[in-house]
Amino acid sequence: RKYPKHFSSKMTDADGECTETQIWLDFSKDCKYISQEISDRLYKEYVEVGRMLGSMANNPEKFLPKN
Length: 67
Prior knowledge:
2 helices
């Protein structure tokens, strides 16, 4: 976490993985592996995680070590 651009890049990668998770949630619901209720709850959590990752990627200086 020493380098802002590297940190931001890693957060962007994590955000991409988060988006992939949404696809798996949709697949799980469509195949009836999970209920609509569980899907809705997990989707809300996915949105919140995505929001946090986006904020971290856009503001890396807040998460860098203090010198």
